[in-house]
Design brief:
This protein is α/β, with parallel strands linked by helices. The protein has eight helices and twelve strands. It has two domains: 121 residues, Rossmann fold (3-Layer(aba) Sandwich); 96 residues, Winged helix-like DNA-binding domain superfamily/Winged helix DNA-binding domain (Arc Repressor Mutant, subunit A). Helix 6 packs across helix 7. The chain is elongated and about 55 Å long. Calcium ion binds next to loops.
């Protein structure tokens, strides 16, 4: 749970502060925002989970989810809602949310829902093997293989590869890659990401003569090619 970042998007200051307090007490890192624009920005970069009020100023919660979905960047999401009409639309899977909770809610119930969504996410990730043509990433073994041959990767190279390969076709900023592979307290520059991508290319693409799978997005970051 350490380092798990939750974005709380809620314009009601009392509810926002209540959520922040309870989540922080559970050990989560919390970024609390009060409008849809800030919710979008925060969720795009850093969120492990988005706790989203639907009735937000700026961009409403429905549109926040839709926009993130379209970009392939919707984190696990728990919707907060007060209105019965909204519940119907959320439950009808019009939204790609993982769960929802109605106001007024008990903090205990909310924490239970958040914990369940995060465990589900971690469970899916822990058991995963990503097959990407000749390249295979076995997350249980923490191993990358090409044509069945194990490739020795340093921990950060491996973390970077997993983050890229888990988001095929998605533009990932250097900042996000840094946070995902190195964590929040890493104080090296974003050039560190470039150096590690070079090593991944040498160890995987060049050594095994694979077609290039990591694209450089100049002035921004990197993107893993869709298979
Ligand atoms: Ca609201």
């Amino acid at each position: 749970m350490a380092g798990t970042q939750i974005v709380v998007a809620e314009d009601d200051v009392a509810i926002r502060e209540l959520l922040r307090d309870h989540l922080q007490r559970e050990g989560y890192a919390v970024v609390a925002v009060e409008d849809g624009h800030a919710a979008l920005r925060a969720a795009r970069e850093l969120a492990d989970l988005l706790l989203l009020d639907l009735g937000l100023p700026g961009i409403d919660g429905f549109d926040v989810v839709r926009m993130l979905q379209r970009e392939g960047r919707l984190p696990p999401t728990v919707i907060l809602t007060a209105r019965a009409a909204e519940i119907d639309r959320v439950v009808g899977f019009e939204l790609g949310a993982d769960d929802y909770i109605c106001k007024p809610f008990s903090p205990r119930e909310l924490l239970a829902r958040v914990g369940a969504v995060l465990r589900r996410r971690d469970g899916t990730q822990a058991l995963r093997t990503l097959s990407l043509g000749r390249l295979e990433i076995d997350e249980r073994a923490r191993e990358a293989r090409v044509d069945g041959h194990s490739v020795a990767l340093k921990p950060q190279e491996y973390a970077l590869l997993v983050e890229l390969a888990s988001n095929p076709g998605v533009a990932l900023s250097r900042e996000r890659l840094l946070v995902r592979a190195w964590g929040f307290d890493f104080d090296g520059g974003e050039r560190t990401v470039d150096a590690h991508v070079r090593r991944l290319r040498a160890k995987l693409e060049e050594r095994f003569n694979l077609p290039p799978f990591i694209e450089t997005l100049h002035g921004f970051g990197y993107r893993f090619r869709r298979a």
